[in-house]
Design goal:
Four copies of one chain form a homotetramer. The first copy, chain A, is of the alpha/beta class and 332 residues long. Chain A has two domains: 6-129, NAD(P)-binding Rossmann-like Domain (Rossmann fold, 3-Layer(aba) Sandwich), CATH 3.40.50; 131-269 and 301-331, Dihydrodipicolinate Reductase, domain 2. Chain A is built from twelve helices and 14 strands. In chain A, strand 11 (250-254) and strand 12 form a beta hairpin. In chain A, helix 4 runs parallel beside helix 5, helix 5 (105-116) runs antiparallel to helix 12 and helix 9 (183-193) crosses helix 12 (297-314). The B-C interface holds B 1, 3, 25-27, 29, 49, 52, 133-134, 137-138, 141, 146, 236-255, 261 and C 1, 3, 25-27, 29, 49, 52, 133-134, 137-138, 141, 146, 236-255, 261.
């Protein structure tokens, strides 16, 4: 094991960027967060105290030139992911890019194409659930044959309400709920069923699209403890992940019954997965070992997400042939 | 409260018929099971011991003429439900008919039409979940506003594997899984969202239809403890029914973890609901009080079930206009 | 199986008496509740409607003379249990006597002595948990060796607050909490570990005895959902009964967390056990089959309960020798 | 917040020592593990790789002289705790000492006395449960009045079987199960009920002391998933901590039922508490802020643990007067 530390920089110090930066600075023993980029002076000010050993740049290209920099976390807004990831790869840096690579299939593919020209670099899309202890245990059990042949996968991802209206504004650029949020569920399906799985058809339904209730419904999905959960049904059993969510191990026995509190947001649920992600990405860069999954899956996930979004909007089911090409409804 | 007992007869002494007969004979204080019909001499023999106070007929029409008979339970094979229910109504008997009335929408409707000419009779389709304490509590909580405005209903019904091949033979006449089995889920949606709800579209997917694994898959859905469960998601909360199934209140702490056993079949789960059904149907007949739900919903449920079955077979989504008429895909 | 019905009478139509009477009248197919006794005219009036086929006596001795009466349920106040049970045995009736036989060991023993002179009679003390499906399943699992050698038994029984002050008045004659309430836990220990177990010592502690908070504490034990539960720890595993109590199968997902409601009192928890008790007692009487447990255990349970009550009051641990005789502390 | 890092040394690199060392080296951003002590050359060899930036000493006194050393973790065998803690205090180092300070009340008190002469030093006994998120949430809820007035505290601590015979050898010096293991439960009681609580009496029972099954029983307490748990019963509710233990969030649905796996040992359960402990101890040293609890409680805990051990051995209940002095049984 090399005792050398990985010199890494973090692009973006917003909500997720700040978390990545703190994880690499304080909870990733083999990494040094030497640089960070933010266009926001307030975030730069925050970093002066929170990240005392990190040089903060207001310009992304400047950060890439930080002496000795070996790797970059891209955790800016989704619209910037692909361009910044491509620039970093071209500057010969390893890249951990937040999901999705892009809301466009073509642009996502361009990141993969760029990376394929630099096979010595580690380029990973940050599907954090892949590093979660529960999802990993479920995968191992499935892989060991505990549930026979996996047949049905069911998964839901939710996000916490931001009453500031953040999501409504965010929705303009997010690519829609399937590309932004449920991309985690799609990625999990690709993981559990294998990236070589062929999608035959997709269909989406939602009440936000057909009623003037978008905001209120989002409120619902969050305020009430509708939580992330997944299940894999096999021919001999079922694995459920987070069907019974739990914050701490405390139960309250009250006159109204027995009550468990649950994590208030996805970071409360997945905090340790992000730390594991940081440590495993760092190890892969330093030891030149394999990343746990392929970058190309990130394009497949966007492709499926976009088809679901289209189905949601059109109300139609979308069919594919065995090579993955779309079949027009009139030709069915 | 009348102290008079309801004289009732049970058509069918097979799996469900025998249960109904025993429930009316032994667990329905206000009913007397005076008659039963079965074409099967073995079942007649069983009844001689199990139902000592009941006259057993090998001919349905004979049973209808039993002196003083006031009501009939129709619990024969699905293909006989409608005809026997109609005969009983015409003979001026109250009727509790097992679900579905028929696998055909038209035939189901003919039962409703016949009943509507005899408004003094109580005619009910046996949707047993409507009598389950858990489903009722969930309905009450929803009705009291506990989860805000109900928005999404999700429900699954499974059946236990019969390794004798019963289901494969049964499938020939059952009308398919949506009309036979998931009709419970459809009925629950009509209950929770109201019978006046308008269906906009239906779409079904399944792996049994597209793979030569029907039997093995059925095996799976049953042998493994995939259990009935439902959830109602509202704007301010969620109600889950049987998300954590439980047979007894025992938990086993073993080296492999903590384990709960669960009911081995739907009757283990719903036994008490069937007893409640028997008692409430009896009370409605004796006291001329209202049945808890309308017969016409049973036609709607078959209609939706048939559309789902068609969607499963064709791979297409099916759309309806606001009056419930189908819209051709080409006209969308 | 005899088709004859057992003619039974119920002494007491108070809280528990009324439940027993209704269970034998309506939920015990092989029994006829032909007679009942209550000294209370209001209860007699209630019975006129609720038990239309039952003759109600205001005098216990009169009830015993009811033509054809074969068996008696004793469900009056604890202080009357022994005398009424003895009278019934002497009148050659089978007896199901509510727990405890008496708060006095000697008087309890006198019931056993009387019964031993009439070995053809079925005389049982109503330890209802012995008929509960969960406790039975746990016993079976233990008996099959699922947890190795049973080593530790832990059990708690609670009762629901009666804000009328019922319990405070009741406490005057109840024999104290260990003889009245925790006698269930003691009986369970005798069941699970065997009636031949030798008690080495007992010690009791409680906050009700040392603080002026008796009533308020009782309130606590009830209002808050401190529920009955038991666990049997063995050398290879543990069985927990009702560690996670559950009323219906509904879970509420609310902003404050996930909540289950639980049965509001012991009858909500044990209703079906009482019905099973009624049916099994009836079957034993009609078929002259063995009762599931011996009457003598009821004396042992009172003996242990009295020792615990004494320990609670004196603050001392009480020791016994191998024959069950007490050892004075000064002789240890 | 000071950006300076705390220079700390770890005495002991055995089971717990190695964990503390790794936590301070890799998961405590404000600490530098500059030194370590172990008398074991194999552990020194392990440290060369695992703790590349730490100087390892084979002599404790040498380690205390490490340049700039400010604080010491004492994680050696229990018999060395007190002497090493006292030496460190005398050398003007902050001390985090593993529990118990000693198995002797007097020796434990001598650590407190030494520390009281150096009030500028932070000296803490490592009761790790005090840093656990679940125990803290339960304390906060109790403190906010969620369960009314706390009345009963029930708690159990178990350890994992070490089939090497480690525990049997260890037992010679451990001070017995109450001082070594259940001292956590005692400390929790002092925390939840307040360190000023007066103990009136203690009584202990156990099957290990009276049967030749010590080893096998220990095996049991561990191999089977008897897990740590606590509950606080108040006048208006109950708080349960880890009544339903959980390793990951995965549930297995199998033919035998629904199963959760649980953490295999106490470190799996409390790993994050140890990390929090390391970070909070470091912050208190650097910022000269208050430790979360007083050192003197560690003496009280040993005192109560010794009395319980004595009660276990003698079979007697032990009484104390209001000042904490023992009352002889003959004087009661």
């Amino acid at each position: 094991m090399s005792q050398r530390k990985l010199k890494i920089g973090c692009a973006g110090l917003g909500r997720m960027g700040a978390r990545h930066a703190l994880n690499f600075a304080n909870r990733t023993p083999r990494a040094d967060l030497v640089a960070a980029f933010t266009p926001d002076p307030k975030e730069k000010e925050w970093a002066a105290t929170a990240l005392p050993n990190t040089t903060v740049y207001l310009n992304y290209d400047e950060m890439l030139k930080h002496p000795g920099l070996e790797a970059v976390i891209v955790a800016t807004v989704t619209t910037a992911h692909a361009e910044q990831a491509i620039k970093a790869i071209q500057a010969d840096k390893h890249v951990l890019c937040e999901k999705p690579l892009s809301t466009s299939v073509e642009i996502s593919q361009s990141v993969v194409d760029t990376a394929s020209k630099k096979p010595h670099l580690k380029v990973m899309c940050g599907f954090s659930r892949r590093f979660d202890a529960s999802y990993r245990q479920a995968y191992d059990r499935m892989d060991q044959g505990a549930i026979g042949r996996p047949s049905v996968f069911r998964s839901q991802t939710c996000d916490k309400l931001d009453p500031s209206g953040f999501f409504v504004a965010y929705a303009e650029f997010s690519g829609g709920i399937f590309v932004d949020c449920n991309i985690h569920d799609i990625d999990l399906a690709l993981w559990y069923f294998g990236q070589d799985s062929v999608v035959k058809s997709v269909v989406a339904m939602g009440i936000t699209a057909v009623q003037p209730e978008l905001r209120r419904h989002k409120d619902v999905d969050n305020g009430i403890g509708i939580h992330d959960m997944s299940e894999i049904i096999g021919t001999e059993g079922k694995l459920a992940i987070n069907a019974n969510p739990q914050g701490t191990l405390v139960e309250m026995h009250e006159p109204q019954g027995i009550r468990r509190e649950i994590p208030s947001d996805y970071y409360g649920r997945f905090e340790h997965a992000f730390v594991t992600e940081a440590n495993e990405f760092t190890a892969a860069c330093l030891d030149n070992s394999r990343l746990p999954f392929k970058l190309s899956g990130a394009v497949q996930a966007v492709q499926i997400g976009c088809a679901l979004q289209e189905s949601l909007n059109s109300g139609q089911k979308i069919h594919f042939d065995e090579t993955g090409r779309r079949i027009e409804t009139s030709k069915l």
